[in-house]
Amino acid sequence: MHFDFVQALREIQREKEIPLDVLERIIEDALVSAYRKHFGAASEIHVEIDWEESRAAVYVRKEVVETIENPHLQMSVQQARKLDDDIQVGDVLDIEVTPEEFGRIAAQTAKQVVVQRIREAERDILFDEFNSRAGEIMTGVVARRDGRTVYVNIGKVEAILPATEQMPNDSYRIGERMKFFLVEVKKTTKTPHVLLSRSHPGLLRKLFELEVPEIAEGLVEIRSVAREAGFRSKVAVASRQDNVDPVGACVGHRGSRVQAVVDEMRGEKIDIVRWSDDGARYLAAALSPARISEVILDEDHHSATVIVPDSQQSLAIGKEGQNVRLAARLTGWRIDIRSESQVREAEQQLAEAAETPEAAGDTADVETPAAAVDAAAAAVDAADAAEDTADAAEDTAPAPENDAPENE
Length: 408
What we know:
Strand content: 15-25%
Radius of gyration: 38 Å
Structural class: alpha+beta
Largest sheet: 5 strands, antiparallel
Shape: elongated
Strand order of the largest sheet: 7-6-5-8-9
Number of strands: 15
Order of helices and strands: HHEEEHEHEEEEEHHEEHHEHEEHHEHHH
């Protein structure tokens, strides 16, 4: 029996990139369904397809028995030996029962089943293809916008870039080509749901892997990434070979490598930090570009007091606390920034308090420099708060009835 749609199936196999064995199972199931519907077969049947000859045959499987109890599933040993002389009771025999008109019926009835199963197979292939690339960078073209949601063409599917995963300094113009981080892929009744991101820290990590050969080759390792998308990021890098400078490798000749990443991130500032297993040194590097005078670690609470010159305090903290916030995320330490003048004032207050017998007993329990700094700094903060309260009281005091001139 010849098929009218065998050639069409071969075209589908090439266009949809569905493996031939998957396509063959789909067709066989569809033909079995068509046979059962039109010929009412209750037997165990299966279809075998000869793709070279473009033929298919329907076989019914029956068990050879002495006495037939179910003619749909069994046949006598006498009937079986007419087809095979060596058959024995208990054996199974496949008998071809292909009707003459089965080709036309199959082409009509199996069409919908074939189309549906091919669509399902295509969805599964697309899901597997994109799911295997989760956590990687994909290049896409902005296709359309619906409110704040951006839809991106990444080839065979239209991916979604929600507002929560966007960068504030991106324009997302229609037709604009950009790089995205593939966050996750979910199965749906239609095409897979592909979620992209431009704000994910993984995007920065993967961009450096593309631009820095030493990272791709494993000579340099990205140990940590902290990011506030569109504004500033910090990347901690370490070398696996003594003769390779991890920071220099990421910066590149005249800053070419890091500049390529900055351009893709639309001008986002990037600090490249040398990772260290020495907590104090790592924290000092993470707070760059500020200069650090001293780092006092509290291992028990995983916190650190960082002392900086007065001129560097605002730089260490950063605009709206951005620099110290990113450094804390990068290192995993809680960080408290104190200026040298604050520390001196704190130490002076402690010394004055220690001169009195009552205060001496209270300060005897102070065991670490960090604790001393914190205690004195709290006193300084309380004094500052008292001054602010006094200033506020003066500002809100009622004015005299007869205002005197300022020079008087």
